[in-house]
Amino acid sequence: MHFLSIPTPVSAILETFQRHGFAAYLVGGCVRDGLLGKMPHDWDVCTAALPEQTLLLFPDAITTGLRHGTVTVRSGGISVEVTTFRSEGAYSDHRHPDSVWFVSDLTADLARRDFTVNAMALSASGVLQDPFGGRGDLSAGMLRAVGDPERRFQEDALRMLRAVRFSAQLGFRIEQETETAIRMCAPLTEALAAERVRDELEKTLLSTNPQLLGTMHGMGLLRQHISGAISVRWDALCAVPPERLQRWMALALLLAEAGDPLSLLASLRLDNKTAQACRDCVALRSIQPRTELTWKAAIARRGAAAAEAAAAVLSAVDGSADLGAVQQILQRGDCCSLRQLAVSGRDLQQLGFQGADVGRTLDALLHHVWRHPEDNDKATLIHLIDQGGVPDGGFLE
Ligand code: ATP
Ligand code: MG
Q1: Is 80 helix (H, G, I), strand (E, B) or coil?
Q2: φ and ψ at residue 226, rounded to 5 degrees
């Protein structure tokens, strides 16, 4: 019986292989998610066909992963990664296999995969291939390495981060021997590329169990990125909506609160926009009391979306009432940024302002309308300028 409704374009790929005498199966995450009753977000196929044979059957396939036997077949609007059954040699750098070779046997292909729940394959007719007991582990809510966990983590240190990430996404426990091996092999994660670590950390952060970042840290998997013996309120992450910017800001706030210098923003090569928003959010926390002016300045500096996100995070993590205050400002449409100011640089030039005086006067006007939103119309502002002895900003309170 089928537990997974396979989209027609995907089963068409499996059937094409079979018609030509090649074994082919769905494999990995889509089988796992299907068994859990979830709709898979991507589809992976493994096959006995060699890459060049796959390309003969699907001439339009994209060949970006060809070196490792993977081609991408587009079918009915769905991209399917098709990988030839393969086995792997030693991993002398703890990151990549020194060599891969193609095999004709499905079990050998499943044996190279990381966890039992990710090492199952399903044929088009619905037959499950599960040589490592993945289905049992799935029912038990257990993540277990395929084969000897210590060897598997020595091969590829990323698997240790993946273990905690899947445990956070699926709500699974990590099996005892697998966990012991993670603690033992944790220092090997230092050899990993920052981007790969960041992606696993971010998936954990956005999961339903973001507090497991505490487990990741406690197991020593983040030692290059987060200070060692600090006490972080990891559970507070759960109070923040699973939205990317907000969760990163919350992580930064909680780490800063615990005394971490936030070197992870750079060491994980987080994009500049997110990293800056995190720093701004931490800086905002130390402004007390935070008034409407604080928030208008934040909106002017980073835009409404980032300021609203920071307010939401501060409200969730610190229990402050900032979110309502920011939403009121935005709903009223108060002028917060130069873009919203009723007078432009060009207007000032027409009034005879030149050079740096233009920017200085605009700033002074903006500060004024932050306090007096009702004055944000052109006539009133020009009148103020006439009266106020600008450019020294004399009309500012
Ligand atoms: P998701 O896509 O939901 O994050 P997934 O299980 O599909 O989960 P992918 O990274 O897309 O994960 O990998 C597809 C499959 O490839 C996995 O299910 C697993 O069988 C195998 N795999 C991926 N990365 C590794 C790895 N580092 N070591 C061993 N096997 C891996
Ligand atoms: Mg996947």
Answers
A1: strand
A2: -130, 140
Residue range 194-202: mean pLDDT, rounded: 98
**Which token pair is 264?**
């992870």
Task: Write down the mean pLDDT value for the chain.
Answer: 94
The reported pLDDT for the residue numbered 95 is 85
CA quadruple 227, 229, 232, 235: dihedral positive or negative? positive
CA angle in degrees (0–180, nearest 5) for 84-89-95: 95
**Amino acid letter at 340?**
Q
Tokens of 171: 């709500």
> pTM for this structure?
0.91
Helices then strands, each counted (H, E), the chain = 19, 11
Distance CA 362, CA 148 (A): 67
Query: Hey, which of 31, 44, 45, 120 would you mutate to test ligand 1's pocket, going by the most ligand atoms within 8 Å of its Cβ?
Result: 44
Instruction: With H, G, I as helix, E, B as strand and everything else as coil, classify residue 280.
Output: helix
- Count of CB atoms situated within 10 Å of the CB of 34: 20
Q: Which residues does residue 87 pair with via DSSP β-bridges, in sequence order?
A: 101
User: Does ligand 1 have an atom closer than 6 angstroms to the CB of 159?
Assistant: yes
Q: What are the φ/ψ torsions at residue 49 (nearest 5 degrees)?
A: -65, 140
Tell me the C-alpha distance between 168 and 211, whole Å.
8
Which string of b and e fits 350-361 if b means at least 16 CB within 10 Å?
eeebeeeebebb
Mean pLDDT of 324-348: 96
| Ligand 2: centre distance to CA 34 (Å) | 12
Q: Residue 361: CB within 6 Å of ligand 1?
A: no
